[in-house]
Amino acid sequence: MDVPLWFALLIVGALGVKLIRPPWWLIGVLLLGGFLIADSVFAPAVDSFVK
């Protein structure tokens, strides 16, 4: 079964929010931080760490 990555991340994120119940500001900070790191000079380092 092939599931698109965006769909899998959406499901995992929804379950995490429902089960762990983090504050909304923390979710926003993580999303914004990930977006900003993806366009920074740290992107190659994060990419090699993830792979």
Q: Could you list some keywords that capture this structure?
A:
51 residues, mainly alpha, 76% helix, flat
Can you describe what's shown?
Keywords: Membrane, Transmembrane, Transmembrane helix. With 51 residues, the protein is mainly α. The protein has helices at 5-20, 24-38, 43-50. The longest helix has 16 residues, at 5-20. The chain is flat. The mean pLDDT is 90.
Task: Briefly summarize what is shown.
It comes from Streptomyces parvulus. The chain crosses the membrane at residues 26-46. This protein is an all-alpha fold.
Task: Classify the secondary structure makeup into a structural class.
Answer: mainly alpha
Calculate Rg over CA atoms.
Answer: 13 Å
Percent strand equals: under 5%
The rough form would be described as flat
Could you outline the blueprint of secondary structure elements for this entry?
Elements: H1 5-20, H2 24-38, H3 43-50
